[in-house]
Design a protein that fits this description.
Length: 89
């Protein structure tokens, strides 16, 4: 039975495009998370630790091993200003 060589070219193109798109997606996620793998299934503890890391280092993905917090850590807070809703009657 003869092999349909004409079908191998589109198959190669499709395979290459899946490989290129998968690699670009991986690079994009890695770049967005500063070289670390993305986090999945975050619970409240993880979210609080990410918020703490963001306040300490400026990024939720970096951590610090310094025993003393920087001076700016005393003034920044997790409490954000919220505006009250104006109810139109």
């Amino acid at each position: 039975m003869p092999v349909p060589y004409g079908a191998l070219i589109p198959l190669g193109i499709i395979t290459a495009m899946f490989g290129v798109s998968g690699s670009l997606l991986h690079l994009t996620k890695t770049y967005a998370h500063e070289g670390k793998p993305p986090r999945y299934c975050l619970d409240n503890w993880d979210k609080q630790m990410m918020e703490r890391d963001k306040r300490l280092t400026g990024s939720p993905h970096r951590q610090t091993s310094e025993p003393i917090a920087p001076k700016e850590f005393t003034t920044n807070s997790v409490w954000y200003l919220t505006s009250k809703r104006i109810l139109w009657q």
